[in-house]
Amino acid sequence: MENHITLAKKLHVLFVDDERLIREMVSDMLSDTVGHVSLASNGQEGLDFYLNSLRPIDIVISDQTMPIMQGLDMLEKIKAHNPTQKCIMITAHSEAKYMLRAIEIGIENFIIKPIIFDKLDNILYDLALKIEQESQ
Hints:
Rossmann fold, single chain
């Protein structure tokens, strides 16, 4: 079996955040870890991209608080469309209501800001391994 770093390089990640600087910073970091990164600036844009992407998306990473459509609302719609979709929620809010809703929706991981990139890398490696195992 391939190692987790090689597996992560096969991933297509959709990162959704309304703050341009965060999108750029996280995109740069993700580009070092995964093979392909797509970006969206709000939940509606992320959902539209997800549903219309010609290249399958392996992992969706989303901020919670955004204009037009919140992150959890978008992820709930994505999970309804594809219950096996791997999702990571990133938020500045550590309130239990967000975490409980994320669990109910079936979100794989929940990260409280600020983003610690080593932790995100480890989550991506773990999900890459899980995706590989599920595909066999």
